[in-house]
Design brief:
By secondary structure, this protein is of the alpha/beta class. It is built from 12 helices and 18 strands. 37% of the residues lie in helices and 25% in strands. The strands form 4 sheets. Strands 6, 9, 10, 11, 12, 13, 14, 15 and 16 form a 9-stranded mixed beta sheet that branches. Strands 2-1-3-5-4 form a 5-stranded parallel beta sheet, sandwiched between helices. The longest helix has 19 residues.
């Protein structure tokens, strides 16, 4: 990794020691200063130099050192996209990466012995952000950052990762997971869950006031404010979700994208694409029950973009961290909605614990 390392005068000696140590671990340390411990300098200046390297993509992460580490951590966390953690031991260093996704390690040269600082840096560099519930929590922190910066939820550049935890959704999802659930019940439940998910997703659709004549008198009511919607299932498993969605939004147009996953490479292979002609004017919801590797979903979204789609969301019953990260990296503006975010993929590319092959279970094939 490329690591931006910076310090003020109090942290200069520790910076020099750590710079050589992390390069010995096989990383590249880019020294942004300060370059002397003799002259008093202001820690925010050197903090900003390192943070600019990270936010521009020139460095993968950073290590910042001052007397206590407090000043550097406070300053770094003022920069959008920087998540700095002040760590005093190896455990907090590792967890700050695995759970919190920190991309800057802050250290105190006057509060941490050099040998311990090296161990902390090693533990931090060897750790990687975990998925599952930690990914959802990190996304919520990123959403807080967007709101604090004035980002509009409708037009912001960062998509959301939303796990829909309504009790009815979770109850029905547990039955769907059960290997003993029949094909008919599985199919019915997928439609029911899809409808419940759409109910939750669309709770903020814009309304306009209308006049209504009841059998008793005239009154005011509300109607959807003409928002155009499109549902695009990824064939074949995505077909199982369409009917449940159309029961709630029958005027939505339906497109189809045909993709299958090569069993050897696990990469998506496309064979069909048919979308509404006015796809660019619609809010598009790509539906696929299982977001596993993310390859098919990312490819489907790319198809829609090439044909003019602009406002796209992805709706899945169950997602794996690998799939979420794939879609988020290729289409960072796309919202991802799921009923569950499971732990991982197995060696065959199936979600664990998952529910098996959704297409086979929907259509009774193997």
């Amino acid at each position: 990794m490329r690591i931006a390392i910076g310090a003020d005068h109090a942290g200069f000696s520790m910076k020099e020691d750590l710079k050589g140590y992390i390069e010995g671990l096989g990383h590249f340390a880019e020294d942004v200063g300060t370059f002397s411990g003799e002259k008093s300098v202001d820690y925010p200046d050197w903090c900003m130099k390192a943070c600019e390297k990270i936010t521009s993509g020139k460095s993968d992460c950073g290590i910042l050192i001052c007397g206590t580490g407090i000043g550097m951590s406070i300053a770094a966390n003022k920069v959008n996209g920087i998540y700095a953690a002040l760590c005093k031991d190896e455990f907090t260093a590792r967890v700050s990466r695995e759970h919190n996704g920190s991309n800057v390690l802050a250290l105190g040269a006057r509060t941490t012995e050099p040998a311990l600082a090296r161990n902390i840096a090693k533990a931090w560099l060897e750790a990687n952000p975990e998925g599952g519930r930690h990914l959802v929590r990190r996304q919520k922190v990123a959403d807080m950052e967007d709101r604090a910066g004035g980002a509009d939820a409708e037009t912001g550049s960062r998509g959301r990762i939303v796990v829909l935890e309504h009790p009815l959704i979770q109850h029905k999802l547990s039955i769907v997971r059960d290997k003993n659930t029949s094909v008919k019940d599985f199919r019915d439940l997928v439609q029911e869950i899809s409808g419940l998910m759409v109910y939750e997703i669309f709770r903020n659709l814009p309304l306009e006031e209308i006049d209504v004549q009841t059998p008793v008198c005239s009154t005011k009511g509300f109607s959807l404010a003409g928002k155009k919607l499109a549902v695009v299932p990824v064939l074949r498993a995505g077909l199982g979700m369409v009917e449940g969605i159309l029961r709630l939004i029958p005027n939505a147009k339906v497109g189809h994208i045909g993709l299958y996953r090569d069993p050897d490479t696990l990469l998506p292979v496309d064979y069909y694409c048919k979308l509404p002609n006015d796809i660019g004017e619609r809010d598009v919801f790509v539906v696929d029950p299982m977001l596993a590797t993310g390859g098919s979903a990312a490819a489907a979204i790319s198809h829609i973009k090439r044909l003019g789609g602009l406002r796209i969301s992805l709706v899945s019953l169950i997602a794996a961290p690998e799939g979420v990260e794939k879609v988020a990296s290729e289409h960072p503006e796309v919202d991802i909605f799921a009923a569950a975010l499971d732990s991982r993929l197995n060696e065959h590319g199936y979600i664990v614990p998952g529910l098996g092959d959704a297409g086979d279970r929907l259509f009774g094939t193997k």
